[in-house]
């Protein structure tokens, strides 16, 4: 009987076609002759039976030799897309990704180079479908935290922005994922940091990102990001820094000349930390009647004291002749407003955060400008503070109504007693009737 190894090559190839893939794989491991003879058949079979899905697995696992065999022997389509999530649970979802995308997201530089040498598609082209749900190979390398892979792709001509790319381009992706090394690499490659993508600039993304890293904002500014271009004289950056950023970010923007509008100061009094309020005062915020009214309504004694210390006249009156004490007493009958998250008109909530890849250096996050909730004082505390600091307890509005009258109408007996103990004239109430 003739042994298997003595069979002619033609018969071995014919026999191999009748075997299952697992059996064929075992057979070619018998000796070198069968390996060299039958290995191409194994790759060709996979290409036909699974539409080159084996190529994607080899690319995802960094199997450079396997990728070579699929391309050389199997004739696999280099831009085939994955049809299943075989990476579920131990990495990024793979469905819809190309071999190049899988290799880039895993940081397999040798496989990336090999695929590019065989004509793998690197960018989206006009008239063609997007590569994979806005995740180009360069985007996938960036989000995977693979700096050398991204550098390789950029050197081979990867586009840095486009309508189908996640966040509109690589710069915004670097900011969204909080990866400083990627941001610096893109700047080294001359990527435009003042490019407007979908109406938003990279600097704006960096300022409104949560968590907020002042270092990323500083790198953009140091490398030519234009505050004036983003601000458009509307105070957008300061507004966003107050809503979503840290005190360090706000301070940096103000120091670099960001536009500040007084209208931003009032919500800051109600919703931000005392340190933020002090910083805005340092950069020109005006203490006026509206400022004190915001502190009174939010029941912030510390803020009220700060404004009084800066020289505000407690006996100034509004258009109805009311002093700030009138307003404070009227607030005794008003519950503290419920805190709600910020919403800037036209922009909605903060952008989604792309998590930093494992092992990437985490940046320090300073204290945020905003605080949770409102003041922990009471309306009675506010009244007591104003009286102690010299508010006129007998001031009359245009209707000859005194603070004591307001206390009788809106406040508790404790507030009425407080005013009487500090010289309020109860007989003045008789003139109202």
Summary, kept brief:
With 433 residues, the chain is an all-alpha fold. The chain has 24 helices and no strands.
Descriptive notes:
This protein is an all-alpha fold and 433 residues long. It has a domain at 301-335 and 374-432: Ankyrin repeat-containing domain (Serine Threonine Protein Phosphatase 5, Tetratricopeptide repeat), CATH 1.25.40. It is 49% helix and 0% strand. The chain has 24 helices and no strands. The chain has helices spanning 9-16, 21-27, 32-50, 53-60, 64-72, 99-106, 109-117, 137-143, 147-155, 170-176, 180-188, 202-208, 214-222, 227-231, 236-244, 247-255, 262-271, 274-282, 289-298, 301-309, 324-330, 379-388, 403-410, 413-421. Helix 6 runs antiparallel to helix 7 (109-117). The model is unreliable at 88-93 and 338-353 (pLDDT under 50).
Could you outline the blueprint of secondary structure elements for this entry?
Elements: H1 9-16, H2 21-27, H3 32-50, H4 53-60, H5 64-72, H6 99-106, H7 109-117, H8 137-143, H9 147-155, H10 170-176, H11 180-188, H12 202-208, H13 214-222, H14 227-231, H15 236-244, H16 247-255, H17 262-271, H18 274-282, H19 289-298, H20 301-309, H21 324-330, H22 379-388, H23 403-410, H24 413-421
């Amino acid at each position: 009987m003739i042994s298997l190894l003595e069979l002619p090559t033609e018969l071995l190839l014919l026999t191999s076609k009748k075997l299952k893939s697992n059996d064929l794989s075992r057979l070619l491991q018998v000796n070198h002759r069968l390996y060299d003879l039958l290995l191409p058949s194994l790759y060709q079979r996979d290409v036909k039976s699974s539409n080159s899905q084996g190529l994607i697995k080899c690319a995802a696992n960094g199997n450079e030799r396997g990728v070579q065999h699929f391309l050389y022997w199997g004739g696999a389509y280099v831009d085939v897309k994955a049809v299943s999530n075989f990476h579920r649970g131990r990495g990024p979802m793979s469905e819809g990704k190309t071999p190049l995308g899988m290799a880039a997201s895993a940081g397999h530089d040798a496989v990336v180079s090999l695929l590019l040498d065989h004509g793998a598609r690197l960018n989206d082209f006009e008239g063609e479908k997007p590569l994979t749900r806005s995740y180009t190979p360069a985007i996938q390398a960036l989000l995977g935290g693979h700096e050398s892979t991204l550098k390789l792709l950029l050197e081979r001509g990867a586009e840095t922005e486009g309508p189908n790319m996640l966040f509109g381009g690589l710069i915004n992706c670097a900011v969204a994922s909080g990866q400083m090394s990627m941001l610096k690499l893109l700047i080294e490659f001359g990527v435009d940091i003042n490019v407007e993508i979908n109406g938003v600039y990279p600097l704006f993304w960096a300022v409104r990102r949560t968590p907020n890293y002042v270092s990323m904002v500083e790198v953009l500014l140091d490398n030519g990001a234009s505050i004036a271009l983003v601000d458009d004289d509307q105070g957008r950056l300061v507004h966003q820094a107050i809503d979503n950023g840290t005190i360090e970010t706000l301070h940096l923007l103000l120091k670099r000349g960001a536009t500040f509008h007084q209208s931003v100061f009032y919500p800051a009094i109600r919703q931000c930390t005392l340190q933020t309020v002090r910083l805005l005062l340092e950069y020109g915020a005006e203490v006026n009647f509206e400022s004190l009214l915001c502190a009174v309504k939010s029941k912030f004694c510390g803020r009220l004291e700060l404004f009084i210390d800066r020289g505000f006249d407690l006996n100034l009156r509004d258009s109805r002749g009311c002093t700030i004490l009138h307003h404070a007493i009227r607030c005794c009958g008003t519950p503290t407003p419920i805190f709600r998250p910020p919403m800037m008109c036209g922009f909605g909530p903060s952008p989604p955060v792309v998590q930093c890849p494992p092992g990437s250096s985490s940046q320090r996050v300073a204290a945020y400008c905003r605080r949770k909730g409102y003041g922990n004082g009471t309306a009675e505390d506010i009244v007591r503070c104003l009286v102690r600091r010299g508010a006129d307890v007998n001031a009359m509005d245009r209707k000859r109504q005194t603070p004591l009258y307001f206390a009788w109408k809106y406040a508790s007996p404790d507030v009425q007693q407080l005013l009487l103990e500090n010289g309020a004239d109860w007989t003045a109430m008789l003139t109202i009737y």
